[in-house]
Design goal:
mainly alpha; three-stranded antiparallel beta sheet; two-stranded antiparallel ribbon; 10 helices
Length: about 300
């Protein structure tokens, strides 16, 4: 038996362990832990989290790979080498595709769970938006950890740099325009740090403003945070997928921010106008003064 360790992974005989895959799995594991805690806070059954994670991860990988393969810069290679499309462990995923795939897997599980419970009396129905709220910080923590897979595969880096935290890139992984350069901006690290900060922000807001939150707000906040994150980082990325002169990720990021902010404002204005105490519309009850007067009128009166 032979043992060999390289930048991409470890080989033990015929067994090959890719660091890229380990980072993805680690991100999913930590995301499950956070989602289970959030599920308890929301009063939901945390056992659903593992099932959603498994199904969501499967569709996330498919969606992420499709997004990457359809990249205008990548498609010529994959169209000429279709066998490489399934080799996800070699790197090459698109986060936006992963998010769409994960959301589809979550919605599919909720549909299946509600259908299987339809014959049970009193069985609470699962709600897609509530579970998206539960999953929002888990998505971000998965991205924060999973991005380190790009480090081991020597991808997702920016232009050359002399900064002390610049990362060395092998000649085989450098763009032709930068073959003479050795160190580059670690975009994966920037995205990892920003995503980790986003997890803390979402968890804080979810607790600090719990009474003001409407179901679906956490997912909208996730879209705003990650949309802004990707929009900013795309300025440092070279060779990215573009529509004309604009990076596709920036277009998607702006759309996410605009739509999410608009929905947040509209939903909360609507809630204020109809006096929603949470995520369900209810008529306002009598004031405390009116309630005390009603009680006094209903009490027996003394004549003497």
């Amino acid at each position: 038996m032979t043992f060999d360790m390289a930048m991409e992974g470890i080989s033990i005989g015929a067994l090959e362990i890719r660091f890229y895959s380990l980072m993805i799995l680690s991100g999913i594991g930590v995301g499950v832990f956070i989602a289970q805690r959030e599920a308890r806070r929301y009063g939901e059954e945390p056992d659903h989290v593992v099932n959603i994670a498994v199904l969501g991860a499967m569709f996330a990988i498919v969606g992420a790979r499709i997004y990457h393969v359809l990249d205008r810069n990548e498609w010529p290679y994959y169209s000429a080498n279709p066998g490489e499309i399934v080799k996800v462990w070699n790197g090459g995923i698109g986060i936006f595709g992963a998010v769409v795939g994960a959301m589809f897997g979550l919605a599919l599980y909720v549909w299946w769970a509600n259908r299987s419970r339809s014959g049970r009396r009193g069985a609470p129905r699962l709600r897609v938006l509530r579970w998206l709220d539960i999953g929002a910080p888990a998505f971000l923590v998965g991205q924060a950890i999973g991005r380190w897979g790009n480090f081991f595969n020597q991808e997702l880096y920016g232009p050359p740099t002399d900064l002390p935290w610049g990362i060395p890139i092998d000649e085989a992984h450098r763009p032709l325009a930068y073959l003479s350069e050795t160190h580059f901006q670690p975009l994966f690290l920037y995205e990892s740090i920003l995503s980790a900060i986003g997890v803390a922000v979402l968890l804080y807001l979810g607790r600090r403003f719990a009474r003001r939150m409407i179901v679906g707000d956490m997912m909208l906040l996730y879209f705003i945070w990650y949309g802004a994150e990707r929009f900013g980082l795309e300025f440092l990325r070279s060779g990215n997928w573009r529509v004309g002169a604009i990076p596709t990720a920036q277009i998607v990021g702006i759309l996410l921010i605009t739509i999410s902010v608009s929905l947040l404002v509209w939903r909360h204005k609507r809630r204020h106008a109809t006096e929603l105490p949470g995520d369900e519309a209810r008529p306002r009850g009598p004031s405390r003064t009116a309630e005390r007067r009603r009680r006094r009128r209903s009490e027996p009166q003394s004549n003497g």
